[in-house]
Amino acid sequence: MKPPINIFWFRRDLRLDDNVGFYEALNGDNPVVPIFIFDTEIIDPLPEDDARITFIFDTLQAMRKTLQNHHNSSVAIFKGTPERVFKTLIETYTIGTVFTNHDYEPYAKERDIAIESLLKSNDIDFKTYKDHVIFEKEEVTKSDGKPYLVYTPYMKLWKEAFKTHDLTIYYTNEYLDNLIKNARLPNLSLSDIGFKKSQQIIAPYTITPTLIEAYESTRNFPGLDATSRLGPHLRFGTASIRKILKKAIAENNDTFWKELIWREFFIQILWHFPKTTTNAFKPKYDRIDWRNNEAEFKKWCDGETGYPLVDAGMRELNTTGFMHNRVRMLVGSFLCKHLLIDWRWGEAYFAEKLHDYELASNVGNWQWAAGTGVDAAPYFRIFNPTTQIEKFDKDHKYLKKWVPNYQEFNYPKPMVDHKEARERCLKTYKTALN
Ligand code: FAD
Fold first, then answer.
1. How far does the centroid of ligand 1 lie from the alpha carbon of residue 357, in Å?
2. ipTM > 0.95, yes or no
3. Mean pLDDT per segment of 10 residues, for the chain of length 434 residues?
4. Which residue, by CA, sits nearest to atom 33 of ligand 1?
5. Could you tell me which residue ranges the Photolyase/cryptochrome alpha/beta domain spans (predicted)?
6. Distance, CA 362 to ligand 1 centroid (Å)?
7. Which residue of 214, 224, 237, 269 is surrounded by the most CB atoms within 10 Å?
8. Which residues line ligand 1 at a C-beta cut-off of 6 Å?
C-alpha cells in the first residue's frame, strides 16, 4: 500500500498563511497534498479573458513558486468537476482525510455533501472549518435562534459576541514543511484551463491607517480613491478576515468595521435563505410587473442612459471590473425603479463584470436596491440621479474621468424623465403590494 497522505482542498482561501483548514491539515497525521480544482461547473460559462480566472491562476502560480523554492513542495492543480477529480485522487493515493474550509453558497453546499459522501464510501474523512468569516451560520442569531433579518441588531450582537471572541491568527506558514515533499504535483497553464490572460487587473488592496482613519468622511465620494478595494481579496481569500479586522480594530474605525459586518450579514442571510438568489425575500415583491425592456437594459449596461452619474458608474464597471459603492446603489436603483427592470438582470450583469463579485453580497445588495430584500431600502426611496451628483460628485471629478463628454451637445438625452419614471415606479410597486 502507498504511504497515506491527507489532502487540503483550496477554494476561496488562496493563501498560505492564517488559513484555518490548511493549518489543521498541516497539523494532522499525514503529509499533506494541497490541491485546487478549476471547477468546470463554475468556470465554463465565463468569458475566456475573465479577470478573476487570471487572478486565481496567478495567485496559485505564486503559491506554487513559494512552496517549490522554500519547502520542496507545491500545489496540485486540476480542471474538471470536483467529483471526477476526487475519483482520480482516490485511485492515485491512499488518502486519510480531506481538509477544507466552509463555503456557504447553495451550489457549494450541495457539492460538499456529494464529495463527503463519495469520500465516506471510500473510508476517507472529510473535515471542514470556518475560515472565511468571523461568525457563520447560527452563531449570531436572535434569542429564539432565528436569523436576524435587520442589519442593526445583527451588527450590535455581532460586536457583543466579538468582545469575547478569540481572534486567533493561524500561523500556517510555520508548518509548511509538513507538506508532501519531492512530489511532481500536476500543473496547468491558462490555456489548458480554456482561458487567456485578461487585460484587466485585480489590484492589491489598501488598508493603511490613513485610509481607515479618513474612511468615514471620504468613502461616499466616488471621485476619491478612498475605499480599500478589499472585495476580491476577501472573496478569493488572498486576504484573511482575521488579519484585516486586527488592523481595522487597531485604527478603531467603527464605520469600516461595520462594512465588514455587512458582508457577514449577507453571508448568513444566504446561508439561511438560499432561495433569495432567485426569489424576492419578500414574496409579494415577486408580483412586480417588471417592464424588462431589452433595448433599455442594453443602454443601462453600456452606460448610455443619458444620466451622467449612472453612465459613469457603468463605464467604470465595464472598463475596470470595479464600481464605487455609492454609484452601485444609484445604478441599482435606476435599473429597478426608473426602468422597472428585474433586479435579477442587474445581479447577473454585475456577476459577470465585478471582480469582487460575491453571490451573498451581490444578491443581498441588489435586493436591497430593488426594495425586495431583508432590511431593504423602502420601495418609495428612489434615488434622484441628478441630485446625487451634487451630493457626491460636486466637483464632477468622477464624471470627468468616466464620461468626459457629459456636457457636450451630442451626449445622450436622459432616456426617461425622472419625475415620470418615479411615478410609474410607485404605481407599479403599489399595484404589486396591494
Ligand atoms: P470598502 O468600502 O473598502 O469596504 C470594505 C469591505 O467591506 C468590502 O470589500 C466588502 O467586503 C465589505 N462591504 C462594504 N460594503 C458592503 C456592502 N454594502 N455589502 C456587503 N459587504 C460590504 N460587494 C461585494 O463584495 N460583492 C458584490 O458582488 C457586491 N455587489 C453589490 C451590488 C450592489 C447593487 C451594491 C449596491 C453593492 C454591492 N456590493 C458588493 C457592496 C459594496 O459596493 C462593495 O463591497 C464595495 O464597493 C467594494 O469596494 P471596497 O472593497 O473598496 O469596499
1. 9
2. yes
3. 95 98 97 98 96 98 97 97 98 98 97 98 98 97 96 97 93 96 95 97 92 93 96 98 90 89 98 97 96 98 98 98 98 98 98 98 97 88 97 98 96 98 98 93
4. 365
5. 4-134
6. 8
7. 269
8. 219, 227-231, 234, 259-260, 262-263, 266, 325, 328-329, 332, 350, 354, 356-358, 361-362, 365-366, 369
